[in-house]
Design goal:
- Chains A, B: Its cofactor is a divalent metal cation.
- Chains A, B: Mg(2+) binds at residues 424, 493, 569.
- Chains A, B: This is 3-dehydroshikimate dehydratase.
- Chains A, B: InterPro entries: DSD (IPR043700), Glyas_Bleomycin-R_OHBP_Dase (IPR029068), Glyas_Fos-R_dOase_dom (IPR004360), IolE/XylAMocC-like (IPR050312), VOC_core (IPR037523), Xyl_isomerase-like_sf (IPR036237), Xyl_isomerase-like_TIM-brl (IPR013022).
- Chains A, B: It comes from Streptomyces olivaceus.
- The structure is a homodimer.
- By secondary structure, the first copy, chain A, is an alpha/beta fold.
- Chain A folds into three domains: 3-270, Divalent-metal-dependent TIM barrel enzymes (TIM Barrel), CATH 3.20.20; 284-409, 2,3-Dihydroxybiphenyl 1,2-Dioxygenase, domain 1 (Roll), CATH 3.10.180; 421-595, Roll (2,3-Dihydroxybiphenyl 1,2-Dioxygenase, domain 1), CATH 3.10.180.10.
- Chain A contains 19 helices and 24 strands.
- An eight-stranded parallel beta barrel of chain A has the order 1-2-3-4-5-6-7-8, surrounded by seven helices. In chain A, strands 14-15-13-9-12-11-10-16 form an eight-stranded mixed β-sheet, covered by helices on one side.
- In chain A, a hairpin with a 2-residue loop joins strand 18 and strand 19.
- The longest helix of chain A has 21 residues, at 71-91.
- The radius of gyration of chain A is 28 Å and the shape is elongated.
- The interface between A and B is large, with 64 and 62 residues.
């Protein structure tokens, strides 16, 4: 189907918006009136620019407060509309969006509304224009799609139809009964379809709509379910995104347009429309790769964690460290950003690496150039929104290229005791790309986003959201700072699973490792909240082990010191606990600030 | 009365919070449990630190989910409480806050709640502790202050009273009837009073409380009215601020604590408690002062606007430019921040400059050092939160020091035609200090904050709020960017009133000045919306004049080009129009971006 985006969804000048929409692969746009007013381009120049960019102007919007008015107010409204229809002729737009009246002078009179909309449609038809009438969720008298349809139906004018908007519909209720009326609308009378999602917030619907809309798949609405119903009704027009969002307004138009189109591709797939190659969710973490200007400090931590340097890349300065199935690459090769040690790449074990890469590419993930030596395994990789390189791997599987084969064994043996594997990775996201990141990991990688959690850092509230496979074999925690400036201020980490965190912590210490010191007050509080076997709490206190419990089970964890931007966590999950220690994160964050000397005591 | 602040209201480590509270002049604090848990200080060390800083620990908080529980759950809750009471003994805190249960296991049984609270109070009394019971607005069964009081009253325990919290009370309704129950509570049973304000948002009360609370006077609640009622009931305990706010969490603790205490001082004044010297609102703008490394470009603009360089400071490189009663100082002296031309100081005409300065100082405004030469007039000045220097002036008034006397006439004469005066000044605020700025201008300067307005810039939503005198003689527009990084990205401006903006614009052009070009599309839209006399719109189009209309009257305005961070606006208000052209601001901002070459077309 044809795809479109409203210019209001993107930042910048009209030219920048159009260029970004075209580059992301949209077929057309809705031109938002304010974007045109602020542009130095004439309507004819906008039309020509769109044509050059391969964009159709599917809609001009909005015309407000034109129906159900006292006649004395309808006349100037019609005059205004005539001006706009002439403008649309210059612009090459053939459909106008009319929003239901919010004017305090609007009358609660459906017959009057139908009559005036007919007169408006007469005028429009004279200009070759169709009127798409939309119920705003906060419309004064007409605020539901089925009410709008009743008015349009009774007007019975060929140039008058409805515009359906997923936000206005779903913000007022999304039960099957709420949506039943859609099938009553003949497909050819649905003149336009606008799509937006939103987080499920209990707030004034106007504020919610103007500031918090997001792209489908980033919020809590069942936009795909709505789309299926609209398609079933026979709608064949463009699928158009219309998102008002305070963060997107500040973001670069280019990446936002890509994020938008990825959202629409994923939505089409969910709604049963022709789709990109099917997802092939990963089955595990093949490796995590650290990029560092100096291997020594991080190697020391890995050694103390029981990792062995088992192999070295044949052609690059990359060491492979292993313990059990946990594999960590330490790369001292040239990096564009040599800002200390950081988690730069993740290898995901994939049932079909080439298929996963094809899907990623179809979903507009930037495919990374393969800079490999002759003989290296052909690794497929894309870049995540935060810049992390994501490799699709087949480790030790016959018939598939194996990254491990590029490495030469050192002869050192990895320990296997204590069930070590990577429990989760934690990656700090750029502030402007948090919603995009969740959508990327869901759509491109096939992971399931979990609930978003607030975490109190001493210097601002962080948000954190895990994306996981259902069996927990892959868990990535996406974290975002309190403000755009915090993009790289917060640490990343690698959490290693163990079946005995006390033993693992003691072994780390015995091997010369350090553990993050946790304040005694924390343990006094644990003693108040839970009863522990004799001596257990003293052990936790001594080692800096944190404790959490939920209905499923228990979670014990502790932290190493930080090297560059990276630290390690030792994690013991029991009884199917599914959390990440969010309740303990404020204490951990404060302790890390204190360890960096940020605080006075 | 004694003043206090909850540690959760300030950012940083517990030590930073306590230090900031003490420096801002609070008598005591509420210790928020999480702040203690995250602190490496022992409770005894916290107690000693507080004593050193002159702070009393008025409250320890919160104890959650202790009442109306099945006995099997009450026993561990009581065990938890015992631990906390022992901790409070070490901390030196004698009052604990107990929030009404949100536990899904809590029973809707007031008698059980009263009984268990009595048993809790028995335990507390054994430790010399009082229990202050507070109804959370989202409590499971007890969510109103009068319900909480009925339970406390029926318990009839000497160590059990209520804690009143202005947010929890006013978020559920603030009518006189809603608040009547307060007078039914004996003052000595009100164990604690927590004060917070909040903007009037229609949203889930828990989210509203956790993220959007602000200091009294910064939101929409009548906190002073509530305080008067609590005082009338006989409450004599501390006035304690408890604010959960996402922005304050990211801000430096020091300035936030000052903002908090200023809020409390202003609140005490409004509630009829002993107060700082009475406000002396300004009667006009004496001058605006531009700081610039190079006087030539801004002098050229002033000259073309009809200003004359009428005088020069006797001891400093400062020129006085005048036109009518509009006075602009151009200062080329040494500046700490030589980042191009900026609006650095504002002179406010004051009926009592010395009194205004005393009030400002009492309200914790930083008093600026007087660096004047012998013989200079003793000008009183303070710094606003954005760093702007605010001078309290008496221009040409016998018996009062006159800043004008420090200037020597050049002999040039100022024009007087066209009613020129400063209509308003627009100052960009640091992102973290927008609420503080509004409170500063209201409390310290005696201006009235107007409604906050959203303005769409092409690269993010701005917020704008005017602070004015009732007669409009002083109007200052405070603007804030979309993100913390935008603090200084946006321009400041000086708007000059004229009784004929067309003549003023023509004169400016004729004198060599340039006016900001406004896109033709804007005028096509004006033509659609309004009917103008023949030729008028063409004049606006030619000159770049923008137009707005409201129920009161009309507003016409145009803009010069920008010098450094500063531009000028010519403004014609008719019929008592009270706006600032917010509807036109997106077009103006886009045009300014285009003029700076930010956009592609």
């Amino acid at each position: 189907m044809r795809t479109s985006i409203a210019t209001v969804s993107l930042s910048g000048s009209l030219t920048e918006k159009l260029t970004a929409a075209s580059r992301a692969g949209f077929d057309g746009v809705e031109i938002f009136e304010n974007d045109l007013l602020a542009s130095p381009l004439t309507p004819e120049e906008v039309r020509a620019r769109c044509a050059d960019l391969g964009l159709t102007v599917y809609l001009y919007q909005p015309l407000r407060d034109v129906e159900a008015l006292p006649e004395a107010e309808f006349v100037p409204a019609l005059r205004r509309a005539r001006h706009k229809f002439e403008l649309m002729g210059r612009l090459g737009a053939d459909t106008v969006l009319v929003c239901s009246s919010v004017s305090p002078h609007a009358l609660d009179d459906d017959a009057l509304a139908a009559d005036q909309l007919s007169r408006l449609a007469d005028l429009a038809r004279g200009h070759g224009i169709r009127v798409a009438y939309e119920a705003l969720a906060w419309g004064r008298h007409i605020s539901t799609y089925d009410h709008a349809w009743r008015v349009v139906e009774s007007a019975g004018h060929p140039a008058l139809g409805v515009c359906l908007d997923s936000f206005h519909i779903l913000s007022r209720g999304g039960t099957p009964e709420d949506l039943e009326g859609i099938s009553a609308i003949p497909g050819e009378k649905i003149f336009f379809l606008q799509l937006a999602d939103a987080p499920l917030l209990a707030m004034d619907v106007l504020q919610w709509s103007r500031h918090y809309r997001c792209f489908p798949g980033q919020g809590g609405f069942d936009v795909a379910g709505l789309l299926r119903r609209v398609l079933a009704a026979g709608y064949t027009g463009p699928l158009s995104l219309e998102v008002f969002n305070d963060v997107f307004r500040q973001s670069e138009a280019g990446p936002t347009a890509v994020d938008a189109r990825r959202s629409l591709l994923t939505l089409q797939e969910e709604a049963g429309l022709p789709a990109p190659p099917a997802p092939a969710p990963p089955t595990g973490i093949a490796f995590a790769e650290l990029l560092t200007p100096d291997a020594a400090p991080v190697s020391a931590v890995l050694g103390a964690l029981g990792f062995a340097r088992t192999a070295r890349h044949r052609g690059k300065p990359v060491d492979l460290w292993e313990r059990g199935t946990a594999r960590i690459l330490v790369n001292t090769g040239p990096a564009e950003r040599r800002d200390g040690t950081r988690l730069a790449a993740v290898g995901l074990e994939s049932p079909d690496p080439a298929g996963a890469a094809r899907r990623a590419e179809a979903l507009l993930a930037p495919v990374l150039p393969r800079r490999r030596a002759p003989g290296d395994a052909p690794l497929e990789a894309v870049a995540a929104p935060d810049g992390t390189e994501v490799f699709f791997c087949a480790t030790g599987r016959p018939g598939l290229p194996d990254w491990r084969a590029d490495f030469e064994d050192t002869g050192e043996e990895a320990e296997t005791g204590g069930a070590p594997r990577i429990d989760h990775l934690s990656l700090t996201q750029p502030w402007h790309q948090f919603d995009e990141a969740a959508l990327f990991h869901r759509g491109v990688l096939g992971l399931s986003p979990q609930e978003s959690v607030d975490v109190a850092d001493p210097y601002g509230l962080l948000r954190s959201r895990a994306v996981t496979t259902d069996d927990g074999a892959v868990r990535i925690v996406l974290t975002v700072g309190a403000a755009p400036t915090d993009d790289t201020a917060h640490a990343q980490h690698i959490a290693l699973a163990t079946d005995d965190v006390v033993a693992a912590a003691r072994a780390h210490r015995a091997a010369g490792g350090t553990l993050l010191a946790i304040p005694a007050n924390y343990y006094d509080d644990l003693a108040a909240r839970y009863e522990f076997p004799e001596g257990e709490l003293e052990t936790y206190r001594e080692l800096g082990i944190l404790y959490d419990r939920d209905a499923q089970g228990e979670f014990r964890h502790c932290y190493t010191h930080t090297v560059g931007r990276v630290f390690f966590e030792l994690v013991q999950r029991d009884g199917g606990h599914r959390g990440y220690g969010a309740a303990n994160a404020p204490v951990r964050l404060a302790a890390q600030h204190a360890a960096r000397g940020f605080t006075g005591g």
